[in-house]
Amino acid sequence: MSAESFQHLPLKSVHYTSHFDPTGTGIFRSLKYFHDAVSAFGGSAHIVSVDAPGARPHDIDGVCVEHVQSRRVPLFGEYRIVGGQEEKLIERMPRPDVVFAHGLYRDHCRMAAKHAKAFDVPLLFVPHGALDPYVFTYRSLRKRLWLKAFSREFERSTVLCSTRREAEKASLAIRSSLFEVLPWPVGIHKASGVEEVPASISDKDRSCRRACFVGRLHPMKRLEETVIAFLAAAVQASDRWVLEIAGGLTAEINHEKLKRIAGDEYGRTVIYRGSLGDKELVDLYKRSDFTLLLSHRENFGHTVAESLCLGTAVAVSDGVDLFPLVEEHRLGYVWRPGGGSTISEFLADVLGRSREEFLAHGARGAAFARQAFSEEQFSRGLLETCIRAQRPR
Question: Do 49 and 181 lie in a common domain?
Fold first, then answer.
């Protein structure tokens, strides 16, 4: 099928994934992105979920989900598809135009490759580095072995990444594939009905200045160093500053450890809000002067994109893959650990900035992010990617 004829047909896609949970975000949210994007231009998305042994299968309202059983084995992942299901599944499913494999290192990738080969259609891998910043590095030996064993499938596939930097990292691990960059959509402002961005100081909390951290409380996000540095910088600042933290606790940083890190300032300068729903999260972003994320590594930085869409400036490290956009479009502040300044020095400088400067960054951020991370942009980009994947290599 030529790219020209393909462009005018409704896209029939099959999406292979490991077990997902609709009560969370993660892979479920990403599957919804792809389903909605394909549906936007008249296509269909058929999801094949390879469920973990003993796991409860989940469905998505309005989406065709096929469940495949698996059994646990010690080789290349936690499960392997129970024999005989693959051929039956491929036989009864309609011919797709494109096959997606969401996530790596699991047996559903092999099944997706087999399905694409059976119908001679493009295969697109989505590593989902936006969900796992260490998708190519953590337990790297095991992953390199898997990638080597799977190298022939990558030779005829396209790898879809959420940022240019993720694609650069992926290219070091997967040397034989084509790479496409497509920023994930962010619709928190639409879902919450927020169309206007803060236009004046009166739209912010005037009782004090506020920064927020949103995300799992994990050492790789430099949360402990961030809290300590923020407290030191807040003492020097002419205004009163508060850091509000929202996100899930972890084994590494639980509630008691967070209290110890903040010391006497817990509940005053450092406030933990717990895990928030979208409405509460929107309120947190809107009342903050800026969002703070100084991670060692973030392949996308979803909270950064959310903050920008809502018109709130950001302060990020150069480990967050969106940092080049923050610099290029003047959307906030970037800390470079190798640049000579400490976190405390960086935050002391940021906390000394005026409200008007933060508002200006936020206004530019909303104008840029609502276009760059829009659902419409994602839908168009996904269609164009599928068209390019049809062309002979």
Answer: yes
User: What pairs with residue 194 in β-bridges?
Assistant: none
Distance separating alpha carbons of residues 54 and 70, to the nearest angstrom: 9
In the chain, which residues have pLDDT < 50? Answer: 1-8
Let me know whether 153 and 205 are in one domain. Answer: no
Q: Hunting for tokens 């450092």 — which residue is that?
A: 270
Rounded to whole angstroms, how far apart are CA atoms 134 and 319? 12
Q: How far apart are CA 219 and CA 226, in angstroms?
A: 10
pLDDT at 23 (0 to 100) = 62
Residues 9 and 95 in one domain: yes
Kindly state the helix (H) or strand (E) to which residue 28 belongs, with its residue range.
helix 26-40
Which tens digit of pLDDT belongs to each residue from 208-244?
999 999 999 999 999 999 999 999 999 999 999 999 9
Q: Any idea what DSSP says for residue 266?
A: B
* Spatial separation of the C-alpha atoms in residues 317 and 319, rounded to whole Å: 5
Query: What Rg do the C-alpha atoms of the chain give, in angstroms?
Result: 22
CA distances from 176 to 226, 266, 387 (A): 39, 51, 20
Contact (Cβ atoms closer than 8 angstroms) between residue 188 and residue 310? yes
Give residue 208's pLDDT: 92
E strand or H helix at 274, and its extent?
A: strand 270-274
User: Tell me, what's the pLDDT at 191?
Assistant: 59
Of 54, 80, 127, 43, nearest to 321 (Cα)?
127
Tokens 């084995």, residue located: 73
Give residue 284's domain range: 188-372
CB atoms within 10 A of CB 362: 30
CB-based contact 329:364 (threshold 8 Å): yes
pLDDT in tens, 318-375: 999 999 999 999 999 999 998 889 999 999 999 999 999 999 999 999 999 999 999 9
